[in-house]
Amino acid sequence: MCAADDTIEPSFVSETITGEKVRVINGDGVVHQCRRFDNVYTAMVRSQTKPIAMERGLLPGDTLREILHLDG
Fold first, then answer.
1. For each of the chain's 72 residues, which pLDDT tens digit applies?
2. Is the distance from CB of 56 to CB of 2 less than 8 angstroms?
């Protein structure tokens, strides 16, 4: 894979046609930037043995690379 985009899209609560409230991610208004896939893959593999602990809440535009302090 190449040109991976590691932007974490924020979720929001929406209502289905049956009235059920569900959390949704649609990506509207989120700026994306192509990145190297190897950082995304490394983070994914690492998280299988060392779960990702969030130091703070997610902010609009956050990326996996920033949260895990990855280079590139």
1. 456 666 777 778 889 889 999 888 777 777 777 667 777 778 778 878 887 766 677 777 777 777 777 665
2. no
Look up residue 44 and give its two tokens.
């994914």
Q: Do residues 1 and 36 lie in contact, with contact meaning Cβ atoms separated by under 8 Å?
A: no
| Phi and psi angles of residue 7, each rounded to the nearest 5 degrees, phi first | -65, 130
DSSP letter at 54 equals P
State the Cα angle at 36 between 56 and 69, rounded to 5°: 25
Q: Tokens at residue 48, please?
A: 């299988």
Cα-Cα end-to-end distance for the chain = 16
